[in-house]
Amino acid sequence: MLSAENLRKAFQASDGAVDVLRGVSLMVAKGESVALTGESGSGKSTLLHCLGCLEDIDSGTIFLNGDALHDLDDDGKSRIRRQKFGIVFQQLNLIPSLTVAQNLSFHARLAVRENAEWTQELADKLGLAALLHRYPEQLSGGQQQRVAIGRAIASRPEFVLADEPTGNLDEDTAEAVMTLLQDLVKEAGAGLLMVTHSERHASKLDRRLHLKNGLIA
Ligand SMILES: Nc1ncnc2c1ncn2[C@@H]1O[C@H](COP(=O)(O)OP(=O)(O)OP(=O)(O)O)[C@@H](O)[C@H]1O
């Protein structure tokens, strides 16, 4: 289970401090898929980054299956990120100099959990089997998004954090990619917290959390 209690996070911008998270508490169970919605600028990406140890919090607690993430130093945070989380970023962050196959197994290799059979199974399920030797720039937007999803799941994470994984895709492709993501996460028995602007996608997940004025509404 991933749980956060009273998370606070402010940024110092050139025009003053921005209080983004003002006491956020939430819980996502293992195997549960939860949508994170909220207006643009409400702090969805910030919350995801804080939960995934990519951004330091000002105060509050974050626990993943009993481990306190808020107490970890930078090395500890990197280790947890590698071992426990699969993260799909808004800007996919595929590595341009690596092939699709190498991108798919990149995080699994870092987590020392590379498994050729599982990676091949993912490539088949994601419709990437014929593209394994291509480079990211030789793929369509939807194909790149599927590689980013496969890469996040290849390391068999306990939790997948996805920041609008279907942004920039047309409705039909987005729908197909979403279904794949949900199926793969369920099959892996992982939890999913997914930022989305789409009512339709949010309604397909088990539950929804809505961020408003720095709090879960
Ligand atoms: N590094 C930063 N420095 C200063 N302000 C920041 C920084 N990162 C984010 N912010 C501010 O924090 C607020 C929340 O940003 P965030 O990206 O988390 O929102 P969001 O809900 O994900 O938005 P969107 O739906 O548009 O992607 C915004 O007001 C943004 O301007």
From TrEMBL:
This is Putative ABC transport system ATP-binding protein. InterPro entries: AAA+_ATPase, ABC_transporter-like_ATP-bd, ABC_transporter-like_CS, MacB-like_ATP-bd, P-loop_NTPase. Gene3D superfamilies: P-loop containing nucleotide triphosphate hydrolases (3.40.50.300). The keyword Membrane applies. It comes from Thalassococcus halodurans. Pfam families: ABC_tran (PF00005). The lineage of its organism: Bacteria, Pseudomonadati, Pseudomonadota, Alphaproteobacteria, Rhodobacterales. One of its GO terms (cellular component) is membrane protein complex. PROSITE patterns: ABC_TRANSPORTER_1, ABC_TRANSPORTER_2. It comes from the Bacteria. GO terms for molecular function: ATP binding; ATP hydrolysis activity; transmembrane transporter activity. Transmembrane segments: none annotated.
